[in-house]
Amino acid sequence: MPNILVTGFEPFEAARVNPSWEAARALDGREISGARIHARQLPCVLATANAALLDAMAQVEPELVLCLGLAAGRADVSVERVAINIVDARIPDNAGSQPIDEPIVPGGPAAYFSTLPIKAMVAALRAKGVPASVSQTAGTYVCNAVFYGLAHHIATQRPTVRGGFVHVPCLPEMAALLPGAPSMSLETLIYAVATMVETAMATEHDIKVEAGALH
Amino acid sequence: MPNILVTGFEPFEAARVNPSWEAARALDGREISGARIHARQLPCVLATANAALLDAMAQVEPELVLCLGLAAGRADVSVERVAINIVDARIPDNAGSQPIDEPIVPGGPAAYFSTLPIKAMVAALRAKGVPASVSQTAGTYVCNAVFYGLAHHIATQRPTVRGGFVHVPCLPEMAALLPGAPSMSLETLIYAVATMVETAMATEHDIKVEAGALH
Amino acid sequence: MPNILVTGFEPFEAARVNPSWEAARALDGREISGARIHARQLPCVLATANAALLDAMAQVEPELVLCLGLAAGRADVSVERVAINIVDARIPDNAGSQPIDEPIVPGGPAAYFSTLPIKAMVAALRAKGVPASVSQTAGTYVCNAVFYGLAHHIATQRPTVRGGFVHVPCLPEMAALLPGAPSMSLETLIYAVATMVETAMATEHDIKVEAGALH
Amino acid sequence: MPNILVTGFEPFEAARVNPSWEAARALDGREISGARIHARQLPCVLATANAALLDAMAQVEPELVLCLGLAAGRADVSVERVAINIVDARIPDNAGSQPIDEPIVPGGPAAYFSTLPIKAMVAALRAKGVPASVSQTAGTYVCNAVFYGLAHHIATQRPTVRGGFVHVPCLPEMAALLPGAPSMSLETLIYAVATMVETAMATEHDIKVEAGALH
C-alpha cells in the first residue's frame, strides 16, 4: 500500500497546542484513497526541522507529502503556491535562533512551486463547505523553510514524489485568547486535510482556474 | 419552570441558511439552569421582525431573551452592548424595503444598553475556549432594530425581563463561498449559545472588566 | 460674525503629536462661510475634557462645534453618528485614570445622535477626493465622552447650537512607527476639516443617502 | 551622469489615474545622488509590459531601475522582496487578456530576489516619516510580471544593473471612491520614491534587520 506523509509542527510561542499537528495526528494510520497516512511532528526549530522532515521521508517512503503549519490570523485553509529560499525570522524559533536573510539551502534556486494540485484542492475544499484559498506567500519563517526543504529534496532526490504546504487557522481555543483572530474547529480541519489528501491522490494535473492576486 | 426565549433570523441575501437560527433551533426545548429554552425564527424584514418578536414573547413569557443574528465578516461571538434608535439599511431587507435614517420607535430614546451581563458572558465563553468579544455597535439594519425593539419593550412593558443581542460569524459552508470570511462551526456556536444562557441565568450583576474601544 | 469651535486633542499614548489638534489649530482664526474658526485643544483626560470643552464653548459662543479625535487604524475621515453614555477605557488616560462602565453623565440619556449633517459632510468630502465615511461607533473612550458631553450640553443648554464628532487617521509620520496603519497627510486633513465646516454651515437638513452597516 | 529608470503603470480597471505613474513622472528629469531620473510609463498589458520595459532600459541605459505599481488596499509603500515566474490573472488586463498559471519566462527560474537594498529603503522611509514595509509577495499579475521580467533581464543580460519593484497605495481621490481603502498623498509618494532612489544609490549592501513574516 502506498504511503502518505502528513506533518505538523510542535507548539510555538505561547501556545500549548498546534492545530497543524492535532490535525495530522488525528489522521495517523488512516487509509485514504488506498494509501496509508503517516503523521510526524516537526520541531519549530529552523536548524533541525528539515532534517526531521528528511528522516520522516526516509522512514515512510511516501509518494505524497503534505506539510501543515499554523497561520494565526488567517481565516481559511490556505494552500501555498510557492516556497522561497530565505529565512527572515520575525521572532526567535523554539531553539532561540532568529536568522535574518539567510538562505535555506545555500546555492539553491530562489524558489520552488508546489507540486500538489493546489487549485483542485481548494476547489474540493470549497465544494465540501470548507473555507479555503490559494496563498501566494508562505512567509519567511519555519513553515516556508520546511516547504522549501521539502521541495528541494523532491526536486533533487525524489522526482516522483509530490509535495506541498498548507497553512491552517487557529483552533477556537487559541483564538479565544487572541481577540479578533479567526479560527477553525479541529473537526473541520481534520476533514480538510483528509479532503486535500484525497484530492491530491486523485488529481495528476492541476485544474486551470483563477486564484491569483493583483498585488 | 422559567422560560428563556432564543431567537434567530431566517436566511437573507444569497445565503440558504442562517447560523443564528441553526443555533437557536438546536437548543429548542432544552433545559438550561432549570429553565426551558424556546427557539423562534424571526423574519429578516424590518416592518415585521419586531412584531414577531413581541408575539414570541407573549407566547413564551420568558424571563430572559437572547436574540441572535449573523455578522458575516466577524470572527467571533460578539455580544452587543447597545442598540440605537435608527434604521439605515445598506441593502433591501427580505421584503424589499430599504429605509434610510428612520427611527425604529418614533419618539423613543436614542439608545438602550443591553440588560444581559455582557462581560460575564464574554469571560465565560473565552474561559471555555470560544472566541468572543464585546461589540460597541450592532449596526443599523434588522439586527439592531430587533435589539432596540426588544430593549424598548422590556424598558416600557416588562421591566423584570432581561434581554440582549449577540452577533455570530458565518458557518464554514457560508465562508467557503465568501473567500476571506472567518467562520465558526455550528457545534461551537450551539455550545456558545448554551454557555451564554447559562451565564446570564447565573449572573445578576455584570462583572467590571475592561472591554472598550478607543474609537 | 458667527463663531465656529473646532477642537482637537493633545497627544496620547506614545505619540508626540495628535493630528486632530494639528488640523484644528491650522484653521484657527480662518473665516469659512462667513464665520470665524476658533481652535481649542482638549486634554486627553476623562475627568477634565468635558469641562474644557464647556469652557471653550462659553468663551467662543459658537453656533457650530466640530470636535476631532484620532482613530489610529482607521483609513478615512470618519464622521460619527452617535455618542453613548458610557466610559469603558481600554487604556489609562493621560491622567492615569481608567474607568470601566461608568456613565459620562449619570442619569443622562443612553445616547445622542450627531446634530451635524453627517451624510452631506461625507458626500462633500468624497466629491472633493477625500476618503470619508459615516461611523456607527465612536468607541467608549475620551472621544466618545467628549462627543456625548457636547451633545448633552447642546440638548440641555444650547438647543440652537449644532455639533458633532469626527475621527481622523494617523499622520504618515505616526503610521511610519506603526507598521500596517493607514494614514492621511496633514494637508488633506486640514482640507477635510474646512470642507466639513463649510458643508455643515450650508446644510440645514441632512441628505438621505444610505450609509449604514449590516452589523 | 549615470541614469536611473523609474517606471509607473497606466491606469487600469475603473481608475483614471495611477499613482505609480504620477509619482514617476513627477521625478522625470530630476537629478538625485548625482544621477538623472528618467520616467517611463508601462502598459497594464501582460503581453507587452515587459517589452516596453526592455525598450526603456535600452534607451535610458540605467544603472538602477525602480518599477512602481499600484496596490489598492495596501496602506504603505511596500518594497517587494521576490518576483515569481507565474501569471495568474484575477481580472483581465487592459488588453482583455487573463492568463492562468502561465510562466512569465518559459524555462526561467521559479523566482528572483530584488537586487535593491530593500531593508535600507524601508528604514530610510520610516526614518523620514513615510509608512513603509517589506512585502513577501508582489502578487501574480502585471506588477509581478514586470518585476520578474526586470530581474530576469538583469540576471541574464545586465549583471551590473540593480533593480526592483515597489507597490504604492491608492491616492486619496481614488480611496474616496473605494470606502475603506487606505491612501497616500501624491506629495508623500513622490518624496518616498526620491528617498528610495537616494537610498538605493547610497547603499551597496543591504542592512540586516528583521522584516519577515511568520506566514
TrEMBL record, chains A, B, C, D:
Q: Which residues form a coiled coil?
A: none
Please give the catalytic activity noted in the UniProt record: Release of an N-terminal pyroglutamyl group from a polypeptide, the second amino acid generally not being Pro
* Keyword Translocase listed: no
Q: Which EC numbers does the record give?
A: 3.4.19.3
Listed GO cellular component terms?
cytosol
Q: CDD domains of this UniProt entry?
A: Peptidase_C15 (cd00501)
Identify the catalytic residues. 80, 143, 167
What are its GO biological-process terms? proteolysis
Query: Does the keyword Cytoplasm belong to this entry?
Result: yes
Where on the tree of life does the source sit, at the highest rank? Bacteria
Give the subcellular location.
Cytoplasm
| InterPro entries, per the entry | Peptidase_C15 (IPR000816), Peptidase_C15-like (IPR016125), Peptidase_C15-like_sf (IPR036440), PGP-I_bact-type (IPR029762), PGPEP1_Cys_AS (IPR033694), PGPEP1_Glu_AS (IPR033693)
Write the signal peptide boundaries.
none
Q: What does this protein do?
A: Removes 5-oxoproline from various penultimate amino acid residues except L-proline.
Q: Which family does it belong to?
A: Belongs to the peptidase C15 family.
Instruction: Describe the subunit structure.
Output: Homotetramer.
The molecule here is called Pyrrolidone-carboxylate peptidase
Instruction: Identify the species of origin.
Output: Allopusillimonas soli
Name the gene for this chain: pcp
